[in-house]
Amino acid sequence: MISRLIRLGSQVVWNGLRAVPPYIDGYLQLKKQLQHRTDFPVLSYYPALFDRYDESGHLIKHYFQQDLFVAQQIFRNNPVRHLDIGSRIDGFVAHVATFRPIEILDIRPLNRPIPNVSFRQADLMALPPDLHHYTDSISALHAIEHFGLGRYGDPIDVDGHLKALANIRQILKPGGRFYFSSPIGPQGIVYNAHRVFDLSYLIRLFEQDYRIDTLSYIDDDERFFHNADWHSEAVKTNFGCTYGCGIFEMTKRSD
């Protein structure tokens, strides 16, 4: 047992060390792409060195309430097919798999079978052609904020989140539901961990292609608020959050 723990610890350390060169290279690429851009300033640094070579899996903060809530919505809405993009496997995906099949896409590998779960490794910033109008229900919970930052071995792309969202729109059939969540607060990048989105930015982005059915959020104190008024003045201050979680349920408009 002790020797196994030592081996696991050594592997973790090695994975962290070999992630240092890509971390530095990715930062240089990101700074170059951010020249003359003001919409996503680099707010701080969070070297997520142990994630790049890790397997698809665990995360913390916001996830329990978010995962449970969206799984309950999918149970109520009962889609024909549900596809998930990069959400927590040992949380949200596991919840949904208890009552229905679920398909997942992730850039990281998943090297173990899970009952009721179908897995496909893919980079959503480059849409596989067979996924056009593929499903009537999609989730991406605390996932899109990572795209294009290199945290999980993905290529550096300052517009990675926009490319992923554009491809999700292509995957979803007209009238289909999109469940989306991300960090909310003062907008910017915490390199190379994630982006934080301003709610007003997200609403403007989504209103082009979706009817926003509900906006719920988890505040900085981990309190959950269902179906908040997304037309209210409080949206301009992200409901007072500096690092909260916004949860959108939306219906895709006709193409």
For the structure shown, list the relevant keywords.
255 residues, alpha/beta, Rossmann fold, eight-stranded mixed β-sheet, three-stranded mixed β-sheet, 11 strands, 30% helix, globular, disordered N terminus
Question: What does the model show?
Answer:
This protein is 30% helix and 25% strand. By secondary structure, it is α/β, with parallel strands linked by helices. A hairpin with a 5-residue loop joins strand 9 (210-218) and strand 10. The chain is globular and about 45 Å long.
Query: How many strand segments?
Result: 11
Uncertain spans: 1-6
SSE pattern? HHEHEHEEEHEEEHEEE
Strand order of the largest sheet: 4-3-2-5-6-11-9-10
Main beta-sheet strand count, sense and barrel state: 8 strands, mixed
- CATH topology group: Rossmann fold
Please state the average pLDDT score: 91
Classified in CATH, the superfamily is Vaccinia Virus protein VP39
List the helices and strands and how they pair.
Blueprint: H1 2-18, H2 20-33, E1 42-45, H3 63-77, E2 83-85, H4 89-97, E3 102-106, E4 117-121, E5 135-141, H5 160-171, E6 172-184, E7 188-191, E8 194-196, H6 199-207, E9 210-218, E10 224-225, E11 244-252
Parallel strand pairs: 1-7, 2-3, 2-5, 3-4, 5-6
Antiparallel strand pairs: 6-11, 7-8, 9-10, 9-11
